[in-house]
Design goal:
With about 80 residues, the chain is an alpha+beta fold. It has one domain. It contains 2 helices and 2 strands; from the N terminus they run βααβ. The protein has a two-stranded parallel sheet with strand order 1-2.
């Protein structure tokens, strides 16, 4: 949908990303499961940063509407 103001907008959905999220989980059992899952699946933050840079560096008149960012090994 075009934006009359010319403002670029992008919705980004992501799953397991190697970031600080697991550190904020206070339930010890849940934190352990998240750490184990992230150890197998988490995508490096640098990869996510490249996707964000792609979306934000588009020229005027072009917009990246959505990015779904997830590990290829992750079940849907």
């Amino acid at each position: 949908m075009p934006t009359p103001s010319g403002i670029h907008t992008t919705a980004i959905s992501l799953d397991a990303l190697a970031a600080e999220l697991p550190n904020s989980v206070v339930d010890l059992d849940a934190a352990k499961r998240i750490y184990e899952s992230y150890a197998d699946l988490a995508i490096p933050a640098e990869s996510f940063a490249r996707a964000v840079a792609f979306a934000t560096n588009q020229p005027n008149g072009m917009d990246v509407n959505e990015i779904f960012f997830r590990p290829t090994r992750q079940e849907l």
